[in-house]
Design a protein that fits this description.
The protein contains two helices and three strands. It has about 90 residues and is an alpha+beta fold. The longest helix has 21 residues. It is globular.
Length: about 90
Amino acid sequence: MAPRRFALVCFRLKLKQEGKGRELKSRLLMAVNESGLAFMTHAVVGGIYIIRYAVGSTLTETRHWDNPWELIQEKAQLVLQELGLALEED
């Protein structure tokens, strides 16, 4: 029998512009949750607002991560456009 694996994915968006990060992440979280396709929560760690997504059960499949990841990217682009912002490139 394979060991069970549980996962909590935490992420944030790094912006080129300062000062709008929390607003952006809050709007992104709301947009994702309002879609009804995934549900995420938030936390503040070390003063940084992060979005949390629990992807873990014994029946978790690749699609349980891939589909929400595409949704996050889509909603992030929409929110960025609404606020006239751009992501920081690594």
